[in-house]
Amino acid sequence: MSAMSQPPPLPHPEAEWRAHLAAGRFMLQRSRASGAFVFYPRIAQPGTGAQDLEWVPACGEGRIHAATLVRRRNPAESYNVVLVDLAEGPRLMSRVDGIAADAVTIGMPVKARIIEEEGQPLLVFVPA
Amino acid sequence: MSGHRGFARGGSAIVGAATFGIGACPGLAPVDMAARAALMALADAGMALGEVDALYTSAPHEALGGLELAEYLGLAPRVTDCNRTGGSAFEVYVQQAALALEAGLIDCALIAYGANPASNPPPAVGMTRQSPWEAPYRPLAPISSYALAASRHMHLYGTTRAQLAEVAVAARQWARLNPEAALRDPLTIEDVLAARMVSDPLGVRDCCLFNDGAAAIVMVRAERARDCARRPVAVLGAAHAVTHREISSMPDLTVTGAAISGPQAFAQAGVGPGDIDVAMLYDAFTITPILFLEDLGFCPKGEGGRFVAGGHVAPGGGLALNTNGGGLSCVHPGMYGLFLLVEAVRQLRGEAGEQLRRRDGIGITRRQIGDEPGAAFLAQRCEAALDAAHSVSSGSACRVRRSSASPRALTV
Prior knowledge:
The structure holds 2 protein chains of 2 kinds.
Chain A: H1 13-22, E1 27-31, E2 37-38, E3 53-57, E4 61-70, E5 79-86, E6 91-94, E7 109-117, E8 120-127
Antiparallel strand pairs in A: 1-2, 1-3, 4-5, 4-7, 5-6, 7-8
Chain B: E1 12-23, H1 30-45, E2 54-57, H2 65-73, E3 79-82, H3 89-103, E4 108-115, H4 143-157, H5 161-175, H6 189-194, E5 197-199, E6 202-203, E7 212-221, H7 222-225, E8 233-240, H8 258-269, E9 278-281, H9 287-295, H10 304-308, E10 320-321, H11 326-329, H12 337-349, H13 354-360, E11 374-379, E12 396-402, H14 407-411
Parallel strand pairs in B: 2-3, 2-4, 9-10, 9-11
Antiparallel strand pairs in B: 1-7, 1-8, 4-7, 5-6, 8-12, 11-12
């Protein structure tokens, strides 16, 4: 088989997502056929195996599905870890900034924000 | 066929069971511990090492653990496995071994495990990668995953921290009857609630131990089991299900894989939750038995917290749950599933001494199936506390009771 006949290499879905994030864009994958959104990014839709995923901008809206406060011993500060139900359907892990760490409640509406942490872009949420 | 899923009810039996080095086992490597427990289980069965032709293990730090243990014991098995479904690996092995025995592929299965993370801290670099979708948010692995599930259960169903604490207190009360258990000092609901918080709503007393221990069991076909040294414990059903790896991908935070595997195993066994005398449900954290009790039908979804309240799963309560003291108070070396199996075997055999007192002397309700007691096992996926994030998931269930094929049971 010649090099010309080989399919182009697949872009790494995680790297692609992070490149979007670094450019200030929170993107989700969506199946063209079913319209269903996929997170985390992968090369095919889970369950169906459909390989027709395209990148679309997320609206950034969500609600807190579950929350925990990770306790740290003084002087380190405790912080929250949450699961967010995105308006588009997928659920992901994140953190709620802009509020006391222990004030996050299940059902709370939140909106996405891209920050930089440890030199990397990071998706977090703030109260809506 | 659809209900039994091809499983031969009672076609195989557990004929040997042993634990070794529970609590602290310094000076040995995990493979030494697994080998020692294996030899003790074979001696318990009255069988020779040379009869083993299938080996199932799940080594804590060695990807090629199946090869390692086979070589160590000098075996050339027809089947060797070192699966990675987490703490429930051993319940999966019971299913796999039963099927291989039934097919005639093997004649004697040895399931063995050992780990001593308390005496011999695990390497800094584990075998599992951290999820790139979770690690940046610094959840405590695996505690925060279970904390998130608990938060959801409390939100939906009004489950309280005091109800979670009931699970820890009941486990401790059982542990106080078990000389082998690591933690045997008294523990109250107030103690659990006042303990240091780790990842809300879970405090340190809601979390399992991370100590040393080894265990092993031996399985053969029912007809061979009649000639073994001990009363065989027949395997009536076994099923497993995988739902996810990371908590952020769990389809429903309050529904475990046991909702899938439990009904399958019950259908194979031909019994329901009301027939169960002793339930051994993987208690990596206090929330997990609550979810399993619901998913296995001991109570409706959402009622698990109220089900365990008032000492209902403690000695003298309505359901004997985790009678060895569980992962919370007896032993949890990173993977706990094999210890559930050994304790259930001991309970079903009605072994003398402290074990018998644990079962009979405390006034446990003993619902009868015919004239034989039953037990259910269920384990969920859980990895060592130092590994990557894991979650409330991947139920696997099997159920055993005294073999109706054994001459002793037939005369009962």
